[in-house]
Design a protein that fits this description.
Layout lengths: L4 E5 L4 H11 L7 E9 H4 L12 H13 L3 E7 L4 H15 L5 E5 L5 H10 L4 E6 L1 H4 L6 H8 L5 E6 L10 H15 L4 E4 L7 H11 L1 H4 L3 E4 L4 E3 L11 E3 L1 H25 L1
Parallel strand pairs: 1-2, 1-8, 2-3, 3-4, 4-5, 5-6, 6-7, 7-8
Antiparallel strand pairs: 9-10
Amino acid sequence: MTKPYIGITGVVTPADVATIASCVALLPPSHRLMAGVLVSAKTLRGEWATSRRYPHASQVDALLTACADAGAWPVVHYNTRAEGEVLGFELALLSSRLFPAMRGLQLNVVRPDVAVVREFASRHPAVEVIVQVNRAALGDAPVPADAVLCANGYVGACHALLDLSGGRGAVVDVAFAARVVHAWRLLGGIPRLGMAGGLGPDAGGALATLREAVGADWFASLSFDAESGVRSPVADPTPGEKHQDALDADKARAWVRVAADAVTSAAVARSGDA
């Protein structure tokens, strides 16, 4: 089974790649560093995004290559509203024509077609797939059983990432997240689980609470990703532009240290209980 990861999403510039490189050595042996590059259906068409978190499509593969050279796992986080065959076409375009350096693909898509995901995974075994389970995917269901339905069809083909924030930096709902993890464990059988949403340098308390809720054994095997929490406002904001922020190297390194300490302490507790 592949290693879980601690992630930094929103790599846009060579300076961001340098930040990624500086974080690799901070990882515990149990986890790898995920470097996330955001791509949308709009940027895939060669258009510029109205957000500084998205590079131009012509820059993406070079960023992925540089992150891989730095020792990180290069992952495209793809946002689209496409479904069915159109989604399949876009994923084929991502992997074979534009971004051959991609080694992971996170689908920020509401309940992507299971057949499309499985087809992509079978055709591209070198690319690990992450299916994001967000608020839109859960709908109004207050219980985690719906989260199981969201992810259950992808078992064996991908990671499942619970993200109730969607890059907005909303504070993680630890109690709900813990219920989802337990549900996935008991009903979904998904071996590769991840958490995102509201994580960053100040997430030590939330991670400790989550560890208590799910147990050290499962916590040590979880993946974690941060986006908004490792960014700071830019000095030259553009009117009308979304996400007027940039990756903050100090916050990114602090986040990786916090997450690494959390999973390391959980691993120690797990070995002590063995």
